[in-house]
């Protein structure tokens, strides 16, 4: 267990993708890129009260261009060329069930709002979101947290790549229903955060309505240890929360110490870059040479009292500056503490120090950029340093693969919200609430026990159905046929086929196969044959024919087996019968016919 500050506060925003199609159109949840693309430049707009959010203004200042790749599950709604359709009722009902599950107070009216987002993650420049409920509590073992809000919103685009000021997104994820459950900042340990997030995720998993995929559950972690709230976005793995928080604690402790030293030295003063291209004449630094050959200038600035605070021991303020610059596309910056390096010698470092007339505790920055950008970059650096020295670390940061975090943008607020005028207010009726209460998901272990008891399957199989995200279709088909047969197909045959054929069979296809076979009283072997043929790429319309999947009956089998001279084993006979007829055969029926033939032969001999 890590050593935690006494005043630590953790809150969660758990985002859960609902597998119910898109939220405001009839497109499917899954799709592939088509290669068709278009570009947009997004502009900031004011919120409902007329103000502009600081995070929105920050994104606008980056002046980026966004390229969108269309997918076969996107339409004019995702392109922002057509108004949104009516809200997806299945997604809305799922959000109501989740709210009921945690005892939240459900609103009697749902108003869809627009949340200004101009980082390119939405083609329209805003995200549609609606408050479903508030209050309630999440409990798991010894951990608990009060719920702040439960919202239903559309998911954002999926980022593909970023190069210069161009960011490319795919539309395949845009518009997928997303349930956001936010907790109060009352969690006091990473272990508690992990368990609370796990409980929230497992509730939707137990419904069988969670979309499959690596990004189907994402956590944003809100953290504070007395220096302001830090929102850490995009934590995809629960077990990473502990290391991410420990590294954020270490970062803030190191910043506190560095700031104390900096202020004790007398603080700093605004930096101002000056051009000196000749100072690096004769250098062997490829970084400097490549930059100057590309037409960039060598810009130098004194950083008062910053020596050994930018990169020395635990101090990493240089990275704080670099992260802020990366957000505006600036990568070519070096500083005193990391030199000599990058081909820059100790003598060249001293030459720059003499030119800038550094004092004992002073540092310097080297910026490789056009002189015309010097003032803009200076402002970004000065603002960053000023905020850090104030002791206010509040901001939005991105979780990285190595479980560190990087500056993204200032914290957003309520100024980016305004009503969605294309969607009428939605009334939540008494019937909708009663249905939500009736079908509200239970804790996973209780769900497993109930499913096992009701359908006569093992707890292990019930758990597998839930975790494989096939529990919804299992319940639906088990009500119409043999639950054990349906369970066997979903737990054993389906994963086996997907593993062997390297092909995923979606729920729509499964439903079509089960519907056809159960409606015609065809059993397990017909379902298995249909799925095998589909896995081999045979079109459904050629498979789902009554004669094609009708099992070989006893009289047919008896006649056919007369022509089979060598009665080897049931498996071999089954393969031969299927080869002859092209239809499924029940192995237990083969055993029965073999038994009948054996008895008949015995009677004839006697």
Account of the protein in words:
- The protein has about 600 residues and is α+β, with helices and mostly antiparallel strands.
- It folds into 4 domains: about 10-230 and about 415-420, no CATH class; about 265-390, Gyrase A, domain 2, CATH 3.30.1360; about 440-550, no CATH class; about 555-605.
- The strands form 4 sheets. Strands 1, 4, 6, 7, 8, 9, 12, 13, 14, 19, 20 and 21 form a 12-stranded mixed β-sheet that branches. A 4-stranded mixed β-sheet has the order 2-3-11-10, with no helix packed on it.
- The chain is elongated and about 105 Å long.
- The chain starts with 8 loop residues before the first strand and ends with a helix.
């Amino acid at each position: 267990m890590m050593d935690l500050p006494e005043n630590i506060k953790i809150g969660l925003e758990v985002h859960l993708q609902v597998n119910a199609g898109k939220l405001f159109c009839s497109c499917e949840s899954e799709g592939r890129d088509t290669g068709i693309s278009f570009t947009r430049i997004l502009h900031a707009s004011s919120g409902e009260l007329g103000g502009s959010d600081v995070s929105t203004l920050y994104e606008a200042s980056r002046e980026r261009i966004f390229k969108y790749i269309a997918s076969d599950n996107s339409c004019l709604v995702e392109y922002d060329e057509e108004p949104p359709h009516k809200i997806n009722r299945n997604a809305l009902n799922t959000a109501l069930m989740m709210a009921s599950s945690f005892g939240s107070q459900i609103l009697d009216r749902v108003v869809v709002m627009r949340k200004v987002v101009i980082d390119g993650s939405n083609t329209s420049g805003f995200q549609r979101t609606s408050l479903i409920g508030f209050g309630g509590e999440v409990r798991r073992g010894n951990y608990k947290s009060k719920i702040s809000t439960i919202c239903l919103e559309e998911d954002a685009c999926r980022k593909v790549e970023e190069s210069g000021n161009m960011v490319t997104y795919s539309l395949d994820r845009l518009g997928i229903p997303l349930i956001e459950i936010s907790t109060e900042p009352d969690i006091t340990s990473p272990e508690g955060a992990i368990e609370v997030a796990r409980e929230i995720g497992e509730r939707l998993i137990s419904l069988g309505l969670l979309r499959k995929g690596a990004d189907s559950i994402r956590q944003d972690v809100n953290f504070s240890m007395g220096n302001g709230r830090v929102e850490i976005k995009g934590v995809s793995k629960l077990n990473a929360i502990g290391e991410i928080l420990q590294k954020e604690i270490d970062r803030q402790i190191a910043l506190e110490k560095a700031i104390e030293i900096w202020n004790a030295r007398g603080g700093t003063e605004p930096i101002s870059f000056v051009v000196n291209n000749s100072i690096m004449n004769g250098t062997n630094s490829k970084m400097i040479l490549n930059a100057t050959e590309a037409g960039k200038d060598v810009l130098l600035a004194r950083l008062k009292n910053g020596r050994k605070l930018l990169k020395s021991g635990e101090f990493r303020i240089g990275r704080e500056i670099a992260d802020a610059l990366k957000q505006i596309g600036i990568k070519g910056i070096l500083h005193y503490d990391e030199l000599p390096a990058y081909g820059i010698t100790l003598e060249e470092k001293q030459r720059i120090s003499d030119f800038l007339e550094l004092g004992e505790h002073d540092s310097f920055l080297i910026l490789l950029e056009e002189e015309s950008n010097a003032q803009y970059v200076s402002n970004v650096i000065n603002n960053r340093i000023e905020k850090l020295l104030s002791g206010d670390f509040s901001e939005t940061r991105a979780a990285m693969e190595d479980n560190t975090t990087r500056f993204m943008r200032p914290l957003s607020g309520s100024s980016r919200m305004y009503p969605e005028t294309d969607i009428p207010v939605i009334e939540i009726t008494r019937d909708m609430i009663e249905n939500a209460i009736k079908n509200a998901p239970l804790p996973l272990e209780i769900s497993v026990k109930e499913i096992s008891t009701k359908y006569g399957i093992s707890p292990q199989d019930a758990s597998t159905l839930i975790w494989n995200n096939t529990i919804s279709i299992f319940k639906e088909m088990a009500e119409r046929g043999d639950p054990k047969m349906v369970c066997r197909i979903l737990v054993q045959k389906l994963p086996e086929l997907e593993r062997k054929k390297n092909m995923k069979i979606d729920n729509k296809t499964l439903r079509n196969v089960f519907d056809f076979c159960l409606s015609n009283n065809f059993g397990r072997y017909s379902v298995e044959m249909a799925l095998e043929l589909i896995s081999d790429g045979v079109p459904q319309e050629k498979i789902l024919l009554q004669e094609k999947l009708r099992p070989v009956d006893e009289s047919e089998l008896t006649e056919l087996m007369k022509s089979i001279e060598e009665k080897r084993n049931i498996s071999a006979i089954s393969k031969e019968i299927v080869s002859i007829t092209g239809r499924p055969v029940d192995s237990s029926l083969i055993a029965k016919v073999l038994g009948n033939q054996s008895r008949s032969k015995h009677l004839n001999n006697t």
